[in-house]
Amino acid sequence: MSTTSLPDILSHLDSGVMTLTLNRVARKNSLTAAMYDALADALESASADAAVRAVVIQGHETVFSAGNDIGDFLDKPPSSPDAPVFRFMRVISRFPKPIVASVCGPAVGIGTTMLLHCDLIYAGDNAAFSMPFVNLGLCPEAGSSLLAPQWMGHPRAAEALLLGEPFMAESALEMGLINRIVPPAEANALAQRQALKLAAKPLAAVMETKRLLKKGNAALVAERIAEEAASFGRMLSEPAAREAFGAFMEKRRPDFSGL
Q: What are phi and psi of 42, to 5 degrees?
């Protein structure tokens, strides 16, 4: 058993399962550049560590993640492919071992799109998923413009990505985004039990099965993540995004008339 504390990320290894806990509840587990780097570092370490046989990503029973920390995001905008957020997307998308996610409360932006790279997802009945990129004058990220239609079907993916409105756990289950809904207080424990089942199986067989499951999409996902990142970086400096983030910081409704 080992426990490591990273900035706002807790990493714990026990019985072959590495658990990564988003631990910034006071800020609704909003993610900073340092947190993206910590997550990417942990996953890269887990990939190379034979003692790690499965990974769990979890938040708190009241919140999974509110997405990017807006202040940190504006202070360190991801304007290049080497930005921590894009690095995290690349690392999680190609992670070779199984990832189990436990999601309760809000899962906003990358709080939802990172799930598209997980293998098993268990949600509390209070989970609320949203991908409000258009509302911020931006485009989808983490390969979600490719993966969301595949998981949800084009009409529902278009609704989720173009309107950016939240959808609840029942809808996520019905469209195949998650595996099961449980009371919030039980979600993390369920994810742990499922991860321990995976850790008890032959690792080579589990990894090869995951590789084959993702093989048809692997090159397309990498290409789409890169394309989205380029568009995302460009759009950050355009008027719509400046208006959206300005309105957010000033606590007013954005005005996109003429944009």
A: -65, -40
End-to-end CA distance of the chain: 54
Helix axes 84-93, 33-48, angle to 10 degrees: 30
Q: What is the DSSP code (8-state) at residue 117?
A: G
**Structure tokens given for 165:** 């409105």
The tokens 């990017």 sit on which residue?
68
Judge whether 226 and 158 are in contact, CB under 8 Å.
no
Q: What is the pLDDT of residue 79?
A: 78
**How confident is the model over 90-108, as pLDDT tens digits?**
999 999 999 999 999 999 9
pLDDT in tens, 108-129: 999 999 999 999 999 999 999 9
Which amino acid would we find at residue 257?
Answer: S
Q: Which residue type occupies 17? A: V
CB 105 within 8 A of CB 183: no
The answer, yes or no, to whether residue 1 has pLDDT greater than 70, is no
From the list 142, 131, 127, 148, the residue with the least C-alpha distance to 190 is 127
| Domain residue extents for the chain | 2-183
Quick one: 57 exposed, middle or buried, by C-beta within 10 A (0-12, 13-18, 19+)?
Answer: buried
Per-residue pLDDT at 10 exceeds 90: yes
Q: Which CATH number is associated with domain 2-183? A: 3.90.226.10
Q: Are strands 120-124 and 99-103 parallel, antiparallel or unpaired?
A: parallel
For residue 181, the cross-strand partners are 123
